[in-house]
Design brief:
4 strands, single chain
C-alpha cells in the first residue's frame, strides 16, 4: 500500500523516458493508469477529457508517422513506446486545456508508481485537426469539438532511469 510519503516521492522522482523497450505493458496495468487519469480534477467536475488507448502497433505507427510529419522529421516521436494514451478535451468547457493537462499529469504519475515509464508528447492538437484523426474519433463514436491535449506514451524504460535535476531557486514566494 502506498503512503502519502510514497506519493510525494513519486512526484519527485518521475522523469520523462525517451527510450523504451518494445515489450507491451499488460492491459490490467494500462487500465489502472487510465483509471488514475479519469480521477483527475476538472473544472466544476465536468470530466470533459477523453482518453484513447492505442495498443495496436499499426495504429500506433500511423500516429507516430503523422506526429513526426507535423514535427518535420522522420524519427519516431513516441521513442519506441508500445502504448500511446491520447488525451483530448471538449473545447466547449472553459477549462478544457487545464482539465486535459491534469489528466496527463495523473497518467504519468500513476505510470511511474506502477513501474512504467512515460513521456508527454505534443502535437495532439495538430494531429486531431486532420481528417484522418477526425475519422478515428468518429469511428469510436466520439462526437463534439475535441482538441488534442497530448499523448502519454507508456512502456518499460530501456536503460537507466534519469536522475532528477536540481530544482531552480526563486520559484516559490510566500505572502
Amino acid at each position: 500500500m502506498n503512503t502519502n510519503q510514497d506519493v510525494l516521492n513519486f512526484m519527485k522522482t518521475r522523469r520523462s523516458i525517451r527510450n523504451f523497450k518494445p515489450d507491451m505493458v499488460p492491459k490490467d496495468v494500462i487500465d489502472e493508469i487510465i483509471t488514475a487519469g479519469t480521477y483527475a480534477a476538472s473544472g466544476m467536475n465536468r470530466q470533459s477529457p477523453v482518453i484513447i488507448a492505442v495498443t495496436d502497433k499499426e495504429v500506433r505507427d500511423r500516429l507516430s508517422k503523422l506526429n513526426a510529419e507535423i514535427m518535420g522529421t522522420d524519427s519516431d516521436p513516441f521513442y519506441g513506446a508500445p502504448v500511446v494514451l491520447i488525451v483530448l478535451a471538449d473545447k466547449n468547457c472553459g477549462t478544457y486545456l487545464y482539465d486535459g493537462s491534469l489528466v496527463m499529469g495523473n497518467l504519468m504519475l500513476a505510470a511511474h508508481g506502477l513501474g512504467i515509464g512515460s513521456c508527454w508528447i505534443h502535437r495532439a492538437k495538430e494531429e486531431f485537426e486532420r481528417p484522418e484523426c477526425q475519422e478515428i474519433l468518429k469511428s469510436l463514436g466520439i462526437e463534439g469539438d475535441y482538441e488534442g491535449i497530448g499523448h502519454c506514451v507508456l512502456g518499460y524504460a530501456n536503460g537507466e532511469y534519469p536522475a532528477a535535476p536540481q530544482r531552480k531557486a526563486g520559484r516559490v514566494y510566500y505572502i
